[in-house]
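Field log, afternoon session.

UNIT: design team B
ACTIVITY: writing a sequence onto a fixed backbone
BACKBONE:
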């Protein structure tokens, strides 16, 4: 996909390559640092102890590293907005590409609804008597306009949103380690919270397995890099650079933050299990350090994180829907771009679906919305599975067609271990996400249905397309590598 040289006064049929290296780094980083780190990390420590949470996050972090390198190898060589949906179509089976594309679009469209719900809770902290619909509507308008104006507008907004989060984590880490060593806030805490009760490991292996899903959710968003590759101004150079920077930053931020929380707050503290922003682990640490208005400050930062996640979600789902339409896998009108290279029709449809899902959370007791959210639960892991499979097949096809590996703009290390390790760990997390529903005298069928609903939906979409279109697995020597 090359940029179109037409003048900006005409409607182009290509996306515009206006995302720079700094945008790519922050889009991937910003897609990952969010409520998973600011809120869910506390629950992980409370459940599995500080050591258990560290093990789970390190394991998932290593898996994400291999997925990032796999995606980078393909994206630097073939930068397309359809990303792993396009790669699966070309290197595995068009039916898998179809299912992965729609799965990813649905996942992010529902995420937009989840972020709209989160915004209302955050704003009620300051304005308890204000109507919920006001804040969610305002949030939706902001996200829509940032995506509507141009890809550069989206990239710039995401850069600053992400920067706020990055600076927060850095300040948090500095304050935390000053407190741990007793330079700030009284006596040194040291490692005493790693030895109380059952610490560092609480609940054994099964508790750690339970945290894998939460850790996986926290890291989801890193694959945005692949979607954004289609609008990078120099993908062959910028994508490998972004991968190298982003992974180490994510791992350092997550691992050091969880280590700091585990050292400063005992895992037995009930507040860690609370998802309320006023007792976020970050708020608790800032409070302990004597930072004035800690809850208000963290609330404002979590608001930024939510806006950032919604903004990224709208971008990713819009581009995926546009690419599906371009390949004839979605209605043709969705493939239209305006003169600024923005897929406006796809953007409007995605915004409407996100809004309808959000409205479902306001009516009745939100049962419809809960099911929509559950169906999207494992979509991110399914997308990661798709990346691992596509990369394995891409490399095999590349060699089978007699091409030189040294000609690749970026070569993933440790092939085939990387995609195989990521594939196996993803399968374990998907199948084991609610293992407790199968344990006991009776199987908890409602729990099974709630947890695994996304899997049969994905398989039905995949097989439905495969049967109706009679698609076959693409032989390695026929994979389209151009």
């Amino acid at each position: 996909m090359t940029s179109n040289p037409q003048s900006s006064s005409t409607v182009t049929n290509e996306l515009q390559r206006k995302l720079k290296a700094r945008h790519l780094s922050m889009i991937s980083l910003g897609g990952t640092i969010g409520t998973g780190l600011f809120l869910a990390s506390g629950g992980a420590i409370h459940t599995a102890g500080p050591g258990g949470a560290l093990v789970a996050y390190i394991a998932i972090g290593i898996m994400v590293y291999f997925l990032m390198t796999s995606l980078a190898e393909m994206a630097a060589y073939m930068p397309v907005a359809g990303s792993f949906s396009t790669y699966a179509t070309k290197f595995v089976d068009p039916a898998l590409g179809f299912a992965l594309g729609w799965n990813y679009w649905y996942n992010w469209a529902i995420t937009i609804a989840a972020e709209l719900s989160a915004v209302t809770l955050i704003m009620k902290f300051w304005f308890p008597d204000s109507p919920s619909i006001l804040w969610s509507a305002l949030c939706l308008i902001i996200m829509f306009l940032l995506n509507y104006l141009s890809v550069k507008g989206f990239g710039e907004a995401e850069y600053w949103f992400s920067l706020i989060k990055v600076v927060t984590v850095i300040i948090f880490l500095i304050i935390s380690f000053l407190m741990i060593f007793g330079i700030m806030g009284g006596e040194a805490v040291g490692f005493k919270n790693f030895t109380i009760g059952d610490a560092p490991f609480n609940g054994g292996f099964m508790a750690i397995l339970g945290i894998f899903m939460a850790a996986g959710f926290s890291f989801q968003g890193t694959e945005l890099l692949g979607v954004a590759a289609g609008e990078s101004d120099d993908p062959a150079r910028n994508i490998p650079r972004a991968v190298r920077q982003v992974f180490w930053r994510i791992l350092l931020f997550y691992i050091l933050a969880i280590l700091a929380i585990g050292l400063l707050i005992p895992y037995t503290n009930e507040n860690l299990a609370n998802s309320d922003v006023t007792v976020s682990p970050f708020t608790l640490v800032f409070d302990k350090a004597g930072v004035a208005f800690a809850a208000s400050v963290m609330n404002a930062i979590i608001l930024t994180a939510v806006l950032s996640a919604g903004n990224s979600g709208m971008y990713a789902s819009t581009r995926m829907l546009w690419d599906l339409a371009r390949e004839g896998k979605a209605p043709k009108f969705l493939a239209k771009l305006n003169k600024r290279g923005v897929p406006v029709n796809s953007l409007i449809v995605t915004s409407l679906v996100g809004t309808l899902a959000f409205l479902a959370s306001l009516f009745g007791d939100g049962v419809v919305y809960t099911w929509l959210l559950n169906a999207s639960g494992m979509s991110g892991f399914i997308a990661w599975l798709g990346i691992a499979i596509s990369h394995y097949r891409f490399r095999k096809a590349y060699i089978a067609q007699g091409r030189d590996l040294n000609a690749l703009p970026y070569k993933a290390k440790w092939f085939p271990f990387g995609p195989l390790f990521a594939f196996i760990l993803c399968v374990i997390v998907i199948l084991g996400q609610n293992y407790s529903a199968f344990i006991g005298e009776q199987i908890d069928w409602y729990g099974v249905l709630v947890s695994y609903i996304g899997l049969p939906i994905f398989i039905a979409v995949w097989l439905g397309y495969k049967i109706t279109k009679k698609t076959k697995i693409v032989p390695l020597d026929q994979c389209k590598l151009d």
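LOG NOTE: The two ends are 10 Å apart (CA to CA).
NEXT ACTIVITY: expression trials, pending approval
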